[in-house]
Each structure stands twice: as structure tokens, then as C-alpha cells.
Write a sequence for this structure.
């Protein structure tokens, strides 16, 4: 059971969530499903580089220089460095994606991410909340906004994201990475933040 819980935690790691978010946008039964394939691939590529590869490589550097003790970032003060790198990299991604047409919704995703990470970095200096659940809540919020604002039928996607969020929360609790308050706080922070910003 522990291996399964760890596997799910890695599969839905916060660094991978933006890629899943893009997939949901492009397959949301809304107007964004009409975005050209070349534009989609460009967005996937830029997101992989700026929101996955760069933060991951920075964590390897931080680990080497002992700025973090583990890749799990269990100590709240260790989260500051990777989060700041991710914010900077997200700014770069926001600029590069803006150079391509039909990417307004993706730019919105980046902008929300930048603002949310900035708020998260402030919160995490005082209190530890779940990064996994913050990301999961943000995706649920983003899918909700797609349906409410752009009139797409996102009910199947919303049900899927809620199911995944519940499963992920259970895994994080089982692994004793967080207590229930940190799980709930992370999820609702991500959910409410995204809905308030975009809707």
C-alpha cells in the first residue's frame, strides 16, 4: 500500500500538474479544444521546460549545495528556494507562450500560477500546507472556471479531478506527509484562489 501511495504522489507531483492542466484545457469540450495542434505542442514543450525541467534541475542544485535536505521539501523553510525559482521560470514561460497566437488561456494559467506561488511562498514561511493539494485544488478550480466562464461541458473532467484530488489527499495522509488541516487548507487555498482570480 505504501508503494502505491508513493507512486500516486509522484504521478501527481506539483511539478507535473501544469502539464495535466494543459491537457484538460485542450480536451475540455470548450472552444479551447479547437486550438491548433502545433500551438498545443508548443505550449506543452514550454510548460515542460519552464515548469518542470527548470524547477527540477534547481532542486538538484539546491540538494547538492545542501540548501534542501530532501526532494520532498518536508521542512517549510526549504520550500522557499524552489518556489522562487519556479516563479521566475513561470515568468519566462508566460513571456514565451505569449509570443504565439491562440494562447491567451494558457497565459492565464501561467499568470494565476505566478500569483498563487507568490502567495504560497508567503504562507509557507508561517505555516506548512500541502503543495500537492494546493496544485490539485487549483486544477479543480481551473476546470470549474472553464465550465462557468466558457460554457463548456466540463462535468466529466470535474468529477475526474475531484476523484484524483480525494485519492491524492488519502495518499498524503497515509504517508503521514501532512495532517488533515494541511490537506484541507492546501486544497481550498488552490481552489478558491483560482476561482476568485479567473472568475
Amino acid at each position: 500500500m505504501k508503494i502505491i501511495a508513493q507512486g500516486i504522489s509522484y504521478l501527481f507531483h506539483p511539478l507535473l500538474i501544469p502539464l495535466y492542466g494543459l491537457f484538460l484545457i485542450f480536451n475540455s469540450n470548450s472552444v479551447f479544444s479547437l486550438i491548433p495542434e502545433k500551438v498545443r505542442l508548443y505550449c506543452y514543450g514550454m510548460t515542460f521546460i519552464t515548469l518542470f525541467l527548470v524547477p527540477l534541475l534547481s532542486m538538484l542544485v539546491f540538494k547538492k549545495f545542501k540548501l534542501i535536505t530532501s526532494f520532498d521539501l518536508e521542512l517549510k523553510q526549504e520550500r522557499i528556494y524552489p518556489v522562487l525559482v519556479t516563479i521566475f521560470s513561470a515568468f519566462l514561460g508566460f513571456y514565451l507562450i505569449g509570443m504565439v497566437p491562440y494562447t491567451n488561456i494558457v497565459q492565464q494559467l501561467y499568470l494565476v500560477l505566478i500569483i498563487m506561488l507568490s502567495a504560497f511562498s508567503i504562507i509557507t514561511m508561517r505555516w506548512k500546507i500541502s503543495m500537492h493539494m494546493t496544485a490539485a485544488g487549483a486544477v479543480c478550480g481551473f476546470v470549474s472556471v472553464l465550465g462557468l466562464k466558457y460554457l463548456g461541458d466540463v462535468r466529466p473532467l470535474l468529477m475526474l479531478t475531484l476523484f484524483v484530488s480525494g485519492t491524492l489527499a488519502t495518499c498524503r495522509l497515509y504517508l503521514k506527509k501532512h495532517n488533515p488541516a494541511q490537506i484541507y487548507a492546501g486544497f481550498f487555498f488552490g481552489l478558491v484562489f483560482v476561482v476568485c482570480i479567473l472568475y
User: Anything to note?
Assistant: Residues 2-198 form one domain. The radius of gyration is 16 Å. Helices lie at 2-11, 17-26, 37-64, 80-97, 104-124, 131-150, 155-174, 180-198. The mean pLDDT is 88.
